[in-house]
Design brief:
- The complex is a heterodimer of chains A (423) and B (73).
- Chain A is 41% helix and 9% strand.
- The radius of gyration of chain A is 22 Å and the shape is globular.
- Chain B has one domain: Alpha-Beta Plaits (2-Layer Sandwich), CATH 3.30.70.
- The chains are: A alpha+beta (423), B alpha+beta (73).
């Protein structure tokens, strides 16, 4: 497989808005995770996009005649590939808005917003204040024992066999079980949840997305009304019975929050776990270093996160302004390219080297600014506890001979990855 | 150098604490527990990195001459 490695190789000549210079038009779909590869560092082919000689703002026009992503902006998007610029898009609330982001529900005629993701400051603040106590370090500490017990129960199931499909039989299950427990969702919805989520995020076609959205939203509305009648000590119940600025939540706020947590809680850590173990299996010196010094686990987790930016986010310009000599118009769409930021040589020394001790390591994998991932402390904890127990119990591991190790460098990631070790 | 924190605006991301736990202690609920401090010599970089890590940008860095060097206005 060869990948484009120069700007000239990705230039296109499709229609674009008049204020966008023609020499900025590119098609970088090769870098967006749709195409699997088999490299140890699967994000390497797009590394040049954050190089010092690449213009700071590129533009990806809609490709004529291609259905593509049903959620893409019809006029196309500015593409932001350097760390400092990505940070500005995520952090400058005067210029950039998050209204409408990831509002899949609009496809089935629902008008509630995704909360808090699609809410701009200053309103955003009250939702974040309301939710953060449930995801902050103090609350999570209480979950440590349960997480550790779950990891060990799952490892018990395969440690003596010397083999596990880390993607399908572990990564897919562990974070979702924790999330469902936190929310109070019935455990028998597990397969149905993952099926719906797969359709919404990965099917890329209208019919299955709409059917899954209908299923999820109807289920969540029913679940909310169940919790209204019969409260428990879980998160959905706390949301439904909570107050914001001294008043109960509206119906739209309840479904908007529960829906958005549902969407964000399912497969992000799963994809991260699969890619993390793939990297360690293909590059055993990482395993050796962590096994020799387990105090490295917290910084190693950050380095896995930095080198595996499974998703990126976007914003809309709130007003006309000039940036890097370009005219930007109110309403313009901006897509940040997080792998660009995370491997930007201006920000990270030796960006392609995996350094389990790297510090500071402020990567963009959880986004940045006020919309930084609400579940980030939970995800970090899940990953840290997993690695602590894994290295305590499982010796050096490798990919099962003959297994397919190709990976989509993004959220889609890996379906199956059998690992083996000596028993 | 001085750090000033708009404590009431803290939503509890705890990124400052992750960068420098002794400079940015948390209360029992996980919110930042200080309204600011005078930075001791040798800890300027750490204090600044902790401030920059705040997604809400409520940690203000005041340089010796009183100018605000973070967040950008």
């Amino acid at each position: 497989m060869t990948y484009p490695s120069t700007l000239d190789a990705v230039r296109v000549d499709h229609p674009a808005p008049d204020h966008v210079p023609r020499d900025r038009l590119v098609d970088i779909r090769f870098a967006l995770g749709g195409v699997p590869n088999d490299l140890v560092d699967p994000y390497a082919p797009s590394g040049w996009l954050s190089g010092p000689d690449i213009p700071r703002l590129l533009f990806s026009p809609t490709v004529p005649g291609e259905p593509g992503n049903p959620f893409a902006h019809p006029a196309g998007s500015w593409i932001v590939t350097h760390y400092a610029d990505i940070e500005r898009v995520y952090s400058d609330n005067e210029l950039f808005s998050n209204k409408g982001t990831a509002e899949f529900q609009a496809l089935i005629g629902e008008t509630f917003p995704s909360i808090p993701l699609a809410i701009d400051p200053p309103d955003h603040h009250k939702y974040r204040m309301f939710l953060m106590p449930h995801f902050g370090p103090a609350r999570l500490k209480l979950m440590d024992d349960d997480m550790r017990a779950l990891v060990n129960e799952m490892i018990d199931g395969f440690a003596d066999r010397g083999e596990v499909d880390i993607a399908w039989d572990f990564g897919r299950i562990y974070p979702v079980r924790i999330f469902m427990g936190l929310m109070g969702f019935p455990r028998d919805m597990f397969d149905q949840f993952l099926e719906w989520e797969w359709a919404i995020l990965h099917s890329n076609s209208f019919e299955p997305i709409a059917a899954a959205l209908r299923g999820v939203v109807d289920f969540l509305r029913g679940f909310i009304s169940e919790k209204e009648k019969a409260p428990d000590d879980k998160l959905v119940s706390a949301i439904v019975h909570g107050t914001i600025e001294g008043r109960p939540l509206t119906g739209d706020e309840k479904i908007g929050i529960v829906w958005f947590l549902w969407l964000g809680g399912l497969d992000t850590v799963a994809a991260t776990i699969s890619q993390m173990f793939r990297r360690m299996a293909l590059q055993p010196d990482i395993q050796d270093r962590i096994r020799a010094d387990r105090a490295l686990i917290p910084t190693a987790v950050e380095e896995f996160l930095r080198t595996q930016p499974i998703l990126s986010s976007g914003r809309r310009a709130k007003q006309d302004f000039e940036w890097h000599g370009q005219q930007i118009k109110a309403g313009d769409s901006f897509q940040c390219f997080n792998p660009g930021g995370n491997f930007d040589p201006e920000r990270f020394a030796d960006p392609r080297t995996f350094d389990p001790a790297r510090k500071p390591n402020r990567h963009m994998t959880f986004i940045a600014g006020v919309h930084i991932c609400l579940g980030a402390p939970l995800a970090r904890r899940e990953l840290r506890i997993l690695l602590e127990e894994w290295f305590r119990r499982i010796p050096a591991f490798r990919v099962k001979p003959g297994a397919d190790t190709s990976v989509h460098p993004g959220l889609l990631s890996i379906r199956n990855l059998p690992l083996v070790w000596d028993v | 150098m001085k750090i000033r924190i708009e404590k009431a605006q803290c939503v509890g991301n705890a990124r400052c604490h992750a960068v420098a736990d002794h400079l940015y202690p948390l209360d029992a609920e996980g919110y930042v527990a200080t309204e600011g401090f005078e930075v001791v010599e040798g800890e300027e970089k750490l204090a600044r990195n902790g401030a920059r890590a705040c997604p809400e940008r409520i940690i203000v860095v005041l340089d010796e001459d009183g100018t605000q060097s973070w967040p950008p206005r």
